[in-house]
Amino acid sequence: MNRPHQNKKATQTFSVEINGTKCSAETGETVFNVAKRNGIDIPVLCHDDRLAPAGACRVCLVEVEGQRRLQPGCAWVVTPDMQVTTESDRIEKHRTVLYNLYMADHELDAAGLPVETENNNQLRELCKTVKPMKLAPVNAPRDARPADNNPYIEFKPDLCILCARCTRYCDEVEGVNAITLANRGAETTIATAGQRSLIDTSCELCGGCIDTCPTGALVEKKSPQNLVQLDVATTRTTCNFCGVGCQMDLHTHNDRLVKITSPEPGQTLNDGNLCVKGRFAFDFVHHEDRITEPLIRGADGQLHPASWDEAIAVAAKGLLKVKEKHGSDSLGFISSSRCTGEENYLMQKVSRAAFGTNNIHQCAAT
Amino acid sequence: MFGAGAMTNAIDEIRDSEMMFIIGSNTTEAHPIIAMEMKRARQRGAKLVVADPREIWLAEMADLHLQLKPGTDVWLLSAMAHVIINEGLHDQAFIQAHTENFPAVVDKVQAYSPEEAEQITGVPAEDIRTAARWYATTRHAGIYYTLGITEHTHGTDNVYCLANLVLMTGHLGVRSAGMNPLRGQNNVQGANDAGATPIYFPGYQKVTDDSVREKFEAAWDVQLSPDDGLNLNVMMKEMEHGGIKGLYIMGEDIVISEPNVSKVERGLNQCDFIVCQEIFHNETTRFANVVLPGACFAEKDGVFTNSDRRVQRVRKAVDPPGEARPDWLILCQMARAAGYAMPEYPSPKEVFDEYASLTPKIAGISYERLQQNPSGLQWPCPTADHPGTPSLHLDGPMIGRAPFQAVDYRPSAELPDDEFPLVLSTGRTLYHYNSASQTRRDPGPVAKQRENFLEMHRYNAKQLGVKHGEKVKVLSRRGAVEAEVWVSPRVRVGCVWMPMHFAESRANLLTNDAGDAVTGTGEYKVCAVRVEKLGCDRG
């Protein structure tokens, strides 16, 4: 992807030291960004490159030379010659306690780990790396929205770690402010105004909240609930709605489309984002109304099923007869801006080479 | 633009804009992901000026909303040019080096003072001045527009006016600037590029150019017509006059999406033979002699080309239902049945290779390269080692000089009068897509927007004695539909707005099929209507 042009504040390049390795950094970068670029992995749950740093989950705490406390790597801005440590006994101890606290307030499976979820529960992966402390479960009565009849997005409060990625995405990227952190203390939850259905809020059903959620507390209602156990293939393709050209991954199972997701942020021009149509409006693909066989209108005025050979022959003959009687230029060919480039190429070739007319235009022309 | 017929700059440059001038584009609804880039730029401090008759969401977040009367764009844009020139804010060096005919525009826009523009457009003269000054004095300032500019009988004039602004300020060949038409459909750009137009072979090579035609005759082994074909708007009209007697329609519901559809229906009834290639039955297949079941995007391979000239792959994930076939295959079979020796392409890849070999702009693109480039390749990409072109004209002057076009204001074809006192504009919403054959089959869009509506200012609603949510009849000289009134602060007094998505209440029964003189694009954005209250017995 393109790098931003340098029209803003002058940036300075300098070096910092992470785990004893010299890394090059620029003004304004965070410890997390510099580390990531230099191949040093700092675990984090609440961070998404599309969002302003929040420092909410405390997973990414690192030691910064001269700082008494551990500091969040996702929010801590580097300065020249800063020395940072991302792995130490102190950090290990911190993570062990932190992950175990999260586990005390999370739905666990038989093995005592955070449950597997459709969106890859990142907390589960982190918890595998520390010793279990078996803390008593926390009583956190977070409200769900049982009456929310929106067809796409479900919130499972037991899986929520309150990192607020979803609400920040809704504010900062989509800009609709439909969901928010509500209530206090153990009762804090992700809510809409008055716990209304997302249908009755400013929510545009883009589903970006599902995508950014690190624990699977936000899930798609459309895809099978046991998707995580199914054999699912993915196919990278381009969205078929507007002219932005978002890239998307089609998840299929048994020759059926079960889910659509965006590639990771930073990889393609949609930067991890999709809209309501691209992400969710795919029921049409397997809809019972699809035309599944060629049809020819009979003398009775009705359309009747026919074989392909028959239908193609009748169609070509019908158009040729018009050409014979009224000339090539009495035919019109309407191509489709919904179809592929190859198909548009072929349609104009059919019109020009097979039927002899330049009366060819694509549908978006008027 | 400027020889390319596409966005001059790339979508991912938008986030680094210093100013965005958005005119005739409801980006958050029609291009939601581009709008996310605009929101990001806004959050990073970019100035935002929105010109639109409606107070769309972008207008709410804008520094300045120029709420012009529908169809007065030429006045607004010429007045901006007037300010830029008379205050000496134009880029003399750029004009001298890269353009021609500037004096004609200098003369022309003298008649378009901001004060007079205020009378005609309804936009305060001071706001016009501010917008012009901001635009002219900000380096990374881009223009973004869509069908609000082009769907007028003077659509081409609107585009010329915008191009004049870009050229006189030198906003070309600069990142996060330029002139950027946002394409409404996934492959509008690709369909044009591939030659689905009456005057061009693939790659904008003129059908009337003998040497070009000879090239295609040799490649396709056939003699080709040397005459420009009819554009879609003219084809639709010619059906009624007997000029068009047979149609092959692939993937468009013309009876919903063309303007003045009752005329289209009369024309279709007079045709001898109609073939429809579709995925769903729609209003148009009612007229078909043969219906061929095609495949949707998830069921075939190919490429789409987006608004910023980016060629990206479409890949098959599932099989088409029943006996439905990919459209490329059907087209080849049709050509052979008509007696033309269409090659036996094993897959769309070989079709693409033939297309690319005849089209210099994309000659360097191949399926192999697209596989290696997850974010696609942007044309021009003339050779296999060319990296593609995210932003046009960055590496120096354009080929030749870009001409300024002096433009006179012409009113829209149909203006309101006593009988039809309101101005109707039509458009799209976020939740539905064109004829909505796809989106109305999904619960979310339906839950958000179940049926057709008409946005109306409360002043007009009060005058008519109608309430929010009440069903009314909307009439134009061409037809009538029923719709729910949405009393909305988004529209101007005297203006109403309706989406085009609903088959049972077709906005295009009302719209005017008067076309732009150059492109034939219909005047979807301005027609005169009357709204009538329904009788009480109708509830």
The biggest beta sheet of chain A is recorded as: 5 strands, mixed
Low-confidence spans of chain A: pLDDT under 50, at least 5 residues? 1-7
- The overall average pLDDT of chain B, rounded, is 93
Measured between the Cα atoms of the first and last residue of chain B, the distance is 51 Å
Q: How would you describe what is shown here?
A:
The complex is a heterodimer of chains A (366) and B (539). By secondary structure, chain A is an alpha+beta fold. Among the domains of chain A are: 14-87, Ubiquitin-like (UB roll) (Roll), CATH 3.10.20.740; 227-290, N-terminal domain of TfIIb, CATH 2.20.25; 295-365, no CATH class. Chain A is 22% helix and 18% strand. Chain A has helices at residues 31-37, 89-104, 122-127, 165-173, 208-212, 276-280, 308-326, 341-354, and strands at 13-18, 21-26, 61-64, 71-72, 83-85, 153-155, 180-182, 189-191, 218-220, 233-238, 247-253, 256-261, 295-297, 303-305, 331-335, 360-362. Chain A has a five-stranded mixed sheet with strand order 2-1-5-3-4, covered by helices on one side. Chain A is elongated. Helices cover 32% and strands 18% of the residues of chain B. Chain B has 20 helices and 23 strands. A six-stranded mixed barrel of chain B has the order 16-20-17-19-18-23. A five-stranded parallel sheet of chain B has the order 3-2-1-5-6, with helices on both faces. A three-stranded parallel sheet of chain B has the order 9-10-11, with no helix packed on it. The relative contact order of chain B is 0.13. At the A-B interface, strand 10, strand 11, helix 6, strand 13 and helix 7 of A face helix 2, helix 11, helix 13, strand 9 and strand 10 of B.
Summed up:
The complex is a heterodimer of chains A (366) and B (539). Chain A has helices spanning 31-37, 89-104, 122-127, 165-173, 208-212, 276-280, 308-326, 341-354, and strands at residues 13-18, 21-26, 61-64, 71-72, 83-85, 153-155, 180-182, 189-191, 218-220, 233-238, 247-253, 256-261, 295-297, 303-305, 331-335, 360-362. Chain A is an alpha+beta fold and 366 residues long.
